[in-house]
Please model this.
Amino acid sequence: MDRFDPATINVRSGHFIGGEYVDVHGPRIDVARPSDGAVYASVPVADAELIERAVQNAWTAFRTSSWARIAPRERARVLRRFADLVAADAATLAPLEALGSTRPVRDAFNWDVPFTAEGIRFYAEFADKIGGDVAATDHDHLGMTIAEPYGVIGAIAPWNFPLVMASWKVAPALAAGNAVVLKPSEMTPFSVLRLAELAVEAGVPPGIFNVVQGDGRTTGDALVRHPRIAKVTFTGSTRTGAAIMAACAETGTKPVTLELGGKSPQIVFADAPRLDDVARRIAGAITGNAGQVCVAGSRLLVERSIADELADRIQRLFSEPRAGATWSPDTTLPPIISEPQAARIEAIVGRSVASGATLRCGGHRADAATPGAFYMPTLLTDVTPQTDAVREEIFGPVLTLQTFDTEDAALALAAHPDYGLAAGVHTADLGRALRMVRGIEAGTVWVNRYGRTSDFMIPTGGFKRSGIGKDLGRQAYEANLRFKSVLIDARV
Ligand code: NAD
Model:
């Protein structure tokens, strides 16, 4: 699927609680299509009262349904069916995802939806793999740990990959036997509702997977503070992550998983094989989803002797993406999520140029057939670690270029004062690659590639202010379990 008519898509709005749509009177938020700015629907804003209803519903389902108690293989079977339904629903889910987000429908159909389904299937396979441990004790005792679900998990998702990000939260939580209350971004609230419907259709008991709509200040805050929320899992900005962590500390010392912002370096040594391929990798890592990717490779660090050559190639590649609506087959540069976000990108680039940066290309809006906010891939040189575009997470297609002469200098530039989400190293020298891997403070380091594969066992997560804990991998599954220690005395 590579196109659709946006006028033909009907969205179902509301909260999804106890397996049903719930819509109540009260304040609402208009929802606009990033591709053309048109308001196409609205969502209700869940207040503390509605959150109470959703969380109590989830708690009741957790306590009274079979979900936490059935044989784990049965839970796995339901989740595999859920994954199958998601994959089979791609023709509905992909346009729904593309309509309200920055994901071109071809990508949503070929990647986001199948990747969401596969993530659910991956965690289904975990359901009967981790049950706890037996401890070595004397023969009069039996000591063990039992892995148990927390109860109700509060999950909060961002707008940049609405289905995929939500599934990374929801799938491990459900597989471990928890109930979930998910709050999507108020900018991309609809596709996850379909996900919740499909979960019920697959046999997940009503009330085990709930969706509440609203903004961060009212709805998100009430959700994380609710006393029955036993754990919070969040993906979004570092600032919001810190606020959520504080709220969790104040209201029950709840554990948190935080997947936050980044400013990830791409380090290219002069010996990197096939410079054309390297240039393509670098360009793709900052233009994909118009740079609205947490692990966007936004800081290019190049060995001085090849800097000009690489910059020329990247500049050529930066002229290739075609701006357009997410429903158009030709689009390779999708819109920026909102007008304020596009204005913020412009302001950071403007301040950077004013402070001495050179604009090699871009630095302006793109022409597109629709009135959405499109920003051209931008390359800034003559920057320093103090330049705004080097320090701040931009979340747009803006790449800065700095040069180095030695490995130590590359490592010094790679270290960001706040962020440590991901990094790329491009070199033919294995010893050097390993020295860089050891030296870089980041949760993920890619060598001679950039970006994840479909190997779900490889977790993702940040160091420093880029986050706490992991999504994906065994780690994300275990983070949805708590371990109860039991000691049985047999001398009775
Ligand atoms: P955001 O922090 O503005 O919002 C994320 C979510 O948090 C939204 O659902 C929002 O409504 C909610 N929220 C806002 N304030 C809240 C509060 N006080 N309490 C509870 N919830 C609140 O982030 P965004 O603009 O939606 O997403 C972009 C950010 O997400 C970027 O910084 C990006 O790097 C980050 N991100 C990180 C990863 C990762 O895996 N590390 C992945 C995707 C995006």
